[in-house]
Design goal:
The chain is of the alpha/beta class. It has a seven-stranded mixed β-sheet, sandwiched between helices. The protein is globular and about 50 Å long. The two termini are about 30 Å apart. The N terminus is likely disordered.
């Protein structure tokens, strides 16, 4: 038996790197569906006073309605942790997968923050330990953030993530069905 044929999950490596963060994390991902272990890690980081921000698609800018429905079920958990989420308003969807840790480490790849990337798909992430590259990447992320709305209850926002977009009755029914189904881990973990 050769242990080299049993690769360590990429998510494990990313968890280990994320645990070492000292100041801040900004993550841009089209699909934000944290696993239970990731919520535990985020809780640990918040207790250590790490500034955490996520940029992701809103219900109006997503290309995958079931993921949006599952994500909407998780928003209150982020609020309880005190983590800021910013939703992209469109008109198209955001598909960037990148992050900056402590303004010095840049991450770019195919990894989404979801169970499928953590446990099922084969993903790739480049980790670049360079302050100049990290700054340039963060500037790009912050530029995208200008077309986002912070997830919070306000006059222009709601927890549902609808920012004046129009949905057909069929789309709304599909969303509601997936919103109910993804409350169960057997369905949630498929995304």
């Amino acid at each position: 038996e050769i242990d080299a044929l049993n690769p360590v999950l990429l998510s494990t490596s990313l968890f280990n790197l994320t645990y070492k963060v000292r100041k801040s994390i900004i993550i841009q991902t089209p699909y934000l569906l944290p696993t239970r272990p990731l919520f535990n890690l985020l809780d640990n980081l918040v207790k250590r006073k790490i500034d955490i921000q996520f940029i992701t698609n809103s219900n109006c800018s997503t290309d995958v309605m079931p993921i949006s429905a599952a994500y909407d079920n998780q928003k209150k958990k982020f609020e309880k942790l005190g983590i800021d989420i910013y939703e992209y308003m469109g008109p198209h969807y955001m598909h960037s997968k990148s992050a900056v840790y402590d303004d010095s480490i840049a991450l770019v790849g195919s990894y989404n923050v979801d169970p499928r990337s953590a446990n099922i798909n084969t993903e790739l992430v480049f980790i670049i330990d360079d302050k100049n590259i990290a700054k340039k990447l963060k500037d790009i992320i912050l530029e995208d953030k200008k077309n986002c709305v912070k997830v919070e209850k306000s006059d222009i926002n709601s927890w549902g993530g609808y920012y004046g977009c129009e949905r057909t009755e069929k789309e709304i029914m599909k969303y509601l069905i997936f919103r109910i189904l993804t409350r169960f881990s057997i369905f949630y973990n498929q995304f």
